Amino acid sequence: MEQADGTVKLAGSAGQVHNLLYVVTAQTLQWRNRIKELEDLINSPQVREHDLQLFFEQNPDFLFGDAYESAYPQIVLQRELEGPLIPDFALKPTNTNALCDLLEIKLPKVKLIRESPNRVRLSSAIMEACAQLREYRDYFEDAERRKAVQREYGLQFFRPRMIVLIGQRRGHSSMGMRKAETDVPSLSIVTYDDILERAKARLRRR
């Protein structure tokens, strides 16, 4: 029923009245505050990867597009002769038959590309992240390891997509980025600009 002030209310099964306008407004405000918190982290010269890891553990929906439904932080990939591997996030897809992917978090201030007169290349920070993700990906070539992870976490992996969250696109030309990304076609580069733009688009839809 609509009130004189324009607020829409519904009566629950026990006669409770729910103020829908208030609920929507509260959710929108909460989402706006979370965006601001992430912006502050991105702009802070003292931010650490650990700070960003904690933010995304508490706000995993910032990592989701339509393709994923949940994020598992720092699953432990046990190895027989070496120490364990611990990726930042395993991403579980919305399609229950699909396989999980891996995401690694790096700092927002690092350079994405190196430009020379003859060539545009990915930065050393991205190449290091790629090497790290490849080690995680190759772990799942072993069938027994895949089974162990599925038993422990209920997650299915095989040649997971490699995703790195790193840097910002501003200051880099779109053409330069596209040229550089072809160096490692198996790596998906997501920037903090991308994350913020997606979050703000979601806010506009609320």
Could you describe the 3D structure shown?
There is one protein chain. Strands 3-4-5-8-9 form a five-stranded mixed beta sheet. It starts with 8 loop residues before the first strand and ends with a helix. The chain has helices at residues 20-43, 49-58, 124-139, 143-153, 174-181, 192-205; strands spanning 9-11, 17-19, 68-73, 89-93, 101-105, 113-115, 120-122, 162-165, 187-190. The protein has one domain: Trna Endonuclease, Chain: A, domain 1 (3-Layer(aba) Sandwich), CATH 3.40.1350. Residues 1-11 have low confidence and may be disordered. By secondary structure, it is an alpha/beta fold. Strand 6 and strand 7 form a beta hairpin. This is Shedu protein SduA C-terminal domain-containing protein.
Show the helix and strand layout.
Layout: E1 9-11, E2 17-19, H1 20-43, H2 49-58, E3 68-73, E4 89-93, E5 101-105, E6 113-115, E7 120-122, H3 124-139, H4 143-153, E8 162-165, H5 174-181, E9 187-190, H6 192-205
Parallel strand pairs: 5-8, 8-9
Antiparallel strand pairs: 1-2, 3-4, 4-5, 6-7
Helix pairs in contact: 1-6
